[in-house]
Design a protein that fits this description.
With 378 residues, the protein is mainly beta. The chain has 2 domains: 184 residues, Jelly Rolls (Sandwich); 176 residues, Galactose-binding domain-like (Jelly Rolls, Sandwich). It starts with a helix and ends in a 6-residue tail after the last strand.
Length: 378
């Protein structure tokens, strides 16, 4: 445990400078098309298009991209999109212009794979305009809350609740629709200076909570939910998951005879004046369609959150969970007051009987986003 703490602290200190920057430019000058890729809205067949560097953009706007769409053969939209670095997002800014249309859209995918879309209207065709929005503030539409220039908001997929599932997102896409291109059914959209901003001065870094697993060592505990009796199961390390040369923890639960849940538990240790705000990990299962999380605090109190849904498709899924979402659920032991007493001492991932008697779950890439804890008032 002492070795784990030392490695975590060194990683923490080494990355503080890297996280000091408050902005990230998503159009990367040294990458083809700035790391953006063309999409043709394949669910609506017929559109063609291109994505190229906008060499006609003024120097102050370079690097810039030009998205072209041709809807003479059908289709609904084309897009320029890319993944988003895993950073807290307080604000997204960008410049855009079009010589052929008056409207465009921006899609942004949150940490829960929900798609949010804002529709924008230019003030003047052919002029560069700056747009700014906070995905957390403007993701759920209420009257008067749309950002400047936006005319509509839509959402679908993921939790389908219209609420930004942060702290970070999975992708951003600029949309050129065929309906906005006029009678020629052809149009262009130019974008520049797509910047993610993180205004939080307390954000420090993301650190691994399982250095041993990265080396193929199992440091997880296992329980069969003995208070309910009857469940069987085990945990083991599996190689080449999620990808070749990686390792994952595989948990199996058998509730054929009886029992309610099985759990894999990882102990963690941090200095008291630092706290875990978010826990991130990867999950994969062919049989489990939900799971639970428990955390143990410094008093020995256990906090358990609600059931989280999981696709039992045998594919790996990225998960981000806010620690405070676990504090609002059940609690027992220790001070038993429903409050989290730092530091967090353990994390448990549970699978239960619901939906079938035999369950499996693979866990990998367990990490935490660490913030400096507020100083206690005396």
């Amino acid at each position: 445990m002492r070795k784990l703490f030392i490695m975590l602290f060194l990683a923490f200190a080494a990355n503080c400078v890297a996280y000091a920057s408050e902005s990230i430019d998503l159009i990367e000058e040294d990458k083809p098309n700035g790391s953006f890729r063309l999409g043709l809205g394949e669910e609506f067949k017929g559109a063609t298009g291109s994505l190229i560097e906008d060499t006609e953009a003024p120097k102050s706007k370079r690097p810039a991209l030009k998205l072209h769409g041709d809807f003479t053969g059908g289709g609904s939209y084309v897009q320029a999109g890319r993944s988003i670095p895993k950073e807290d997002i307080d604000e997204i800014t960008f410049y855009a212009k079009s010589d052929t249309g008056d409207e465009f859209g921006v899609r942004y995918i949150d940490g829960g794979s929900q798609c949010h879309q804002l529709g924008y209207r230019f003030k003047k065709r052919g002029s560069w305009e700056k747009f700014t929005f906070d995905p957390g503030k403007f993701s759920k539409r209420k009257e008067g809350t749309l950002p400047p220039g936006a005319i509509e908001y839509k959402h679908w997929g993921g939790k389908e609740d219209g609420v930004w599932d942060g702290p970070w997102g999975n992708g951003i896409y600029f949309i050129l629709g065929g309906a906005t291109c006029g009678g020629t059914k052809k149009g262009d959209l130019c974008i520049s200076s797509v910047v993610l901003k993180n205004k939080s001065s307390t954000h420090l870094t993301t650190v691994s909570l399982d250095e041993e697993l990265e080396k193929g060592e199992l440091k997880w505990g296992f329980t069969r939910g003995e208070e309910f009796g009857g469940a069987q199961g085990n945990i083991e390390v599996v190689k080449d998951q999620p990808k070749k040369k990686d390792y994952a923890v595989k948990m199996n639960g058998d509730f054929t005879a009886a029992g309610t849940y099985v759990a894999a538990t990882r102990k963690v240790e941090f200095k008291e004046d630092y706290e875990i705000k978010y826990i991130t990990f990867k999950l994969c299962s062919k049989t489990a369609d939900s799971y639970n999380l428990r955390i143990g605090d410094s008093t020995g109190q256990t906090h358990q959150g609600p059931h989280f849904k999981l696709k039992s498709d045998g594919e790996w899924h990225d998960v981000t969970v806010r620690v405070d979402s676990l504090i609002k659920g059940e609690h027992w032991g220790g001070d038993n007051d429903g409050s989290l007493h730092r530091p967090i001492k353990s994390l448990s991932i549970l699978i239960g009987k619901g939906g079938g008697n035999v369950k499996d779950l693979m866990i990998s890439d367990l990490k935490a986003v660490i913030y400096k804890a507020p100083k206690s008032k005396k």
